[in-house]
């Protein structure tokens, strides 16, 4: 079996933990899922206490971040600042983790 495609093969040199973790995610082809879950977990820190307290659900589906909010004015404010939120996400998680933000 070719070592390039065998996720259980070991490298000869020692790798830093972060690098080894990224290699593992890549080997099992779960990088995107990990990034999506990390984004959902970081939502309160990303948007702040006011929005986080009024968020009832956050999930990613088909490269879209769905956010359910309990406050109409907060929902409107978030949609007006959608570009800023997307920029924050790109800065923290990289481009392409999500392509759109949907508030409901």
Characterize the structure shown:
This protein has helices at about 15-25, 30-45, 50-55, 70-80, 80-95; strands spanning about 55-60, 65-70, 100-104. The protein has a three-stranded mixed beta sheet with strand order 1-2-3. With about 100 residues, it is an alpha+beta fold. The radius of gyration is 17 Å and the shape is elongated. Helix content is about 50%, strand content about 15%. Helix 2 (about 30-45) crosses helix 5. The chain has a single domain (about 30-104), classed as GMP Synthetase, Chain A, domain 3 (2-Layer Sandwich), CATH 3.30.300. A hairpin with a 2-residue loop joins strand 1 (about 55-60) and strand 2 (about 65-70). The protein is built from five helices and three strands.
Write the layout of secondary structure elements.
Blueprint: H1 17-27, H2 31-47, H3 49-53, E1 55-61, E2 64-69, H4 72-80, H5 82-93, E3 100-103
Parallel strand pairs: 2-3
Antiparallel strand pairs: 1-2
Overview features:
alpha+beta; 104 residues; 3 strands; elongated; 5 helices; GMP Synthetase, Chain A, domain 3
On the 0 to 100 scale, the average pLDDT is 88
> What amount of the residues lies in strands?
15-25%
CATH architecture name? 2-Layer Sandwich
What class would the helix/strand composition place it in? alpha+beta
* Secondary-structure element pattern, one letter each: HHHEEHHE
CATH topology: GMP Synthetase, Chain A, domain 3
Q: What is the count of structural domains? A: 1
Alpha-carbon Rg, integer: 17 Å
How many strands appear in the DSSP assignment? 3
Instruction: Tell me the number of helical segments per DSSP (H or I, 4 or more residues long).
Output: 5
User: Runs with pLDDT <50, length 5+?
Assistant: none
Percent range for helical residues?
40-55%
Distance between the terminal alpha carbons, to the nearest Å?
Answer: 48 Å
**CATH class membership:** Alpha Beta
Biggest β-sheet: strands ordered side by side in the sheet: 1-2-3
Shape estimate: elongated
